[in-house]
């Protein structure tokens, strides 16, 4: 058996690539193991290609409410092929990433499925056939997560799609006439927005009693109301029990958790968005002595170290909050802890994880909901303000009597510290980001935080949003070479 040795082995090419590249730049030998497209969920089947569809959907919704500010349009036409070209242009960027890594010194890519055979060894079953045997000094598990398919009678025979297959073999030639979405979370809400705006009749069937149950109830109720205005049928508190093909299309039958007769919904296509699970089964982490929880998510400590001190993990494979900006944060932390030996290791801090739901209305979220705050059992403050309360909101046509009047909700403790911020409405994701920075502005003993960029550097920036524009400008700073004001400076780009 010919075994190749590497200083670092990274399994997965989402945020894990950040760690691989950092190791390669420091002269270490690196192996990257990937069974599919480079770029992870976000680039190839998640947040980036979906935003190529969300923004056109947003524009369509804006034209529908433009009459509120005195503007009327002819009915817009949807060029699905143009939208699709933008989607696939982003997905195909994965090829350029892979090609660029193929030309890096000290870095070897293994296309296939990796499986641990011991604490320091791995076999990769190559896509092209055969096997590769790897020995690593250190490992980073970044294999992500994938849609978990519920055990529904007849579902496989009926046929369905997931977010993975949608951005793959099941991508449609045009928007469907009708669509059933099983699930009531973030993916379900975003696809419901996209396709209903494109003219598809959408029905959402959710197991939880609330749409978007991770959001503050006021926010999720507002989204549900808005969905109704757009003609989206929302059925919550229903368990899907059967799928079948009929002459009219694909049918799902669901049973209410409150009892009563089952209901049936028929549509041209079914999208399963009922949750995700970790991609760890084929990896066989137990053979490396890496502990996982009951669902298969990898367990790590506050330094992202697994039960094996030389094996680390990051991103969706850890469970919890499955966002690319969280994975990027963890990759940055791991790069510091692995390669910056001149400063103490950093602990992961998840107190201010922000996110957005790119639906209609858009949602920005950081911190606790009011339900969670109440469970703390101590006094708190609530601030609420509507878009129609400010001049900019009024200029955009928001009125107090309208159900789409956007909302900002602020939750504070007795010391006026931010516990949570929730915004629903136009550009909510960008509006919530400053509060993320404030929540990271406490500082450590001896730090002078006043006016510094440290809160920004320590914060997760919701991806993909315009807030990233200013945040990532920090990446272009050459900290070793401050600019001499006495010398001319050429500005490019």
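^ structure tokens above, recovered residues below v
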């Amino acid at each position: 058996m010919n075994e190749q040795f590497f200083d670092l082995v990274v399994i997965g090419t989402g945020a894990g690539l950040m760690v691989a590249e950092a190791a390669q730049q420091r002269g270490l030998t690196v192996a990257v193991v990937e069974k599919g497209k480079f770029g992870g969920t976000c680039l190839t089947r998640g947040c980036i290609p979906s935003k190529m569809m969300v923004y056109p959907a947003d524009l369509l919704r804006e034209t529908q409410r433009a009459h509120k500010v005195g503007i009327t349009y002819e009915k817009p036409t949807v060029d699905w092929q143009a939208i699709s070209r933008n989607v696939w242009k982003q997905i195909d960027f994965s090829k350029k990433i892979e090609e660029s890594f193929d030309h890096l010194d000290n870095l070897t890519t293994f296309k296939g499925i990796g499986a641990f055979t011991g604490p320091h060894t791995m076999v990769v079953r190559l896509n092209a056939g055969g096997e590769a045997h790897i020995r690593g000094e250190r490992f980073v598990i970044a294999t992500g997560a994938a849609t978990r398919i519920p055990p529904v009678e007849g579902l496989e025979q009926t046929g369905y799609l997931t977010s993975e297959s949608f951005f793959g073999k099941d991508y449609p030639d045009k928007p469907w006439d009708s669509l059933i979405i099983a699930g009531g979370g973030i993916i379900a809400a975003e696809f419901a927005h996209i396709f209903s705006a494109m003219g598809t009749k959408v029905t959402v069937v959710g197991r939880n009693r609330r749409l978007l149950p991770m959001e503050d109830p006021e926010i999720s109720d507002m989204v549900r109301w808005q969905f109704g205005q757009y003609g989206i049928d929302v059925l919550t508190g229903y368990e899907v029990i059967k799928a079948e093909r009929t002459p009219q299309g694909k049918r799902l039958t669901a049973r209410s958790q409150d009892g009563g007769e089952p209901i049936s919904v028929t549509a041209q296509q079914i999208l399963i968005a009922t949750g995700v699970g970790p991609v760890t089964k084929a990896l066989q982490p137990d053979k490396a002595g890496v502990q996982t929880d009951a669902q298969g998510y990898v367990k790590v400590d506050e330094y992202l170290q697994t039960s094996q001190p030389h094996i680390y993990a990051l991103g969706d494979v850890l469970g919890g909050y499955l966002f690319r900006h969280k994975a990027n944060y963890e990759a940055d932390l791991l790069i510091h802890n692995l390669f910056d030996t001149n400063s103490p290791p950093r602990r992961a801090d998840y107190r201010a994880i922000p996110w957005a739901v790119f639906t209609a209305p858009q949602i920005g979220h950081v911190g606790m909901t009011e339900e969670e705050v109440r469970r703390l059992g101590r006094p708190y403050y609530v601030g609420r303000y509507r878009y129609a309360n400010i001049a900019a909101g009024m200029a955009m046509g928001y009125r107090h009597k309208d159900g789409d009047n956007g909302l900002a909700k602020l939750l504070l403790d007795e010391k006026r510290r931010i516990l949570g911020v929730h915004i629903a409405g136009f550009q909510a994701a960008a509006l919530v980001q400053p509060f993320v920075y404030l929540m990271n502005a406490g500082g450590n003993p001896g730090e002078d935080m006043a006016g510094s960029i440290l809160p920004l550097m320590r914060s997760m920036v919701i991806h993909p949003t315009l807030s990233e524009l200013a945040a990532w400008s920090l990446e272009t700073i050459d900290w070793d070479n401050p600019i001499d004001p006495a010398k001319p400076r050429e500005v490019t780009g």
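Residues 354-466 form a domain with the Enolase-like; domain 1 fold (CATH 3.30.390.30).
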